[in-house]
Every structure is written in structure tokens, then in C-alpha cells.
Amino acid sequence: MMRLMKNAVTGCMALLCIILAAGSLRAQDSPVVQRGWGLFEADDYAGTRVLAEQALQEDENLLERSRGDLLFMLAYSLMQLEEYRASINTWHALIELFPRHPMPWGNLGWTYYKHGDLDSAIIATTRALSFAESSALDWGNLGLCYLAKGDVENMRRAYGRAARYV
Question: pLDDT tens across 107-123, in order?
Fold first, then answer.
């Protein structure tokens, strides 16, 4: 049951992240960003990682949106490759660009959860919820964190909020 819930949450999170990050301005992306999205959407996380790292190193004058897209692709790819510490560092770099956007905070929380740092996961996910209180996905992730800590009362509260916002 728990594994099914984790898989469902992971799948929903991945879809939400792709939709949010793709945005409506996709046609205006640079060619390297467009190639990155192609690799990313094909679940080629190793290829996405290489392209994003190279592009971020080579071009310090990237537009903020392009830099954000590349950082998102890199952080998410690193998480999928189970390189959690590098992913966490990259989520923090994205947060420096967009400190009040809930998406990188929520993904940072999920990455901390996958890394096993439940306290940091709760802090980051709570921060995401401070910007988007109605995020059922983040409430569900917060519930998982509390469940993993054995905090049944806060788990129930978080899952109750998730159910309310679904």
C-alpha cells in the first residue's frame, strides 16, 4: 500500500513538474533548452544532465528563464539518477533565481525525502505550501514525511489537507 502511494505521488509530481516547467513560452526557448526538454521528456535523465551541465557552464549570460529551465531539468534529472546531494544543491540554485516559487521548494522537499533527510524535507515542503497552500501534492508529500517519522497526528492533518485540495 505504501509503495503504491509513493509511486502514485512520484508519478503525479513528475507530471506536474513537467507541465509547470514547460510553460506557455516553450516555442521561444533557445535551441539548447529545446534539446534539453526533448531529452527530459524522453526520460533520458543522463543525457539531460550532460546537456544541462554543459550549457550552464558554457553560457553565463543565459536569460533567467533559460537558466531556470536548465536548472530544473538538471535538478530533476539528478534526483531521478539518485544523486540526491547534487540535486539538492541544484534545487537551491533554482530557488536563488525564484525564491518565492513553490515548485522548486516542493521538489527540494521531495528530494530531501528521497535522500532520507525528513526534517529538511518537512521544512522545504512547508515552505512550498507557504506560497501555494492549496497544493494537494505538497500536502501529500508532507503527509509521507510525517508518516516516515512516525508522527501520526501531523500525517493525518496533512493528508486531510491533501484530500481537501484534490
Answer: 999 999 999 999 999 99
- pLDDT tier at 47 (50, 70, 90 boundaries)? very high
Which residue has cell 513537467?
Answer: 18
What is the reported pTM? 0.83
Is the distance from CB of 84 to CB of 111 less than 8 angstroms? yes
Write down the H helix ranges in 23-63: 31-41, 45-58
pLDDT at 66 over 60: yes
CA–CA dist 134, 114 (Å, integer): 23
Contacts of 136 (CB under 8 A, 6+ apart): 161, 162, 163, 164, 165, 166
Task: Report d(CA 28, CA 78) in Å as an integer.
Answer: 25
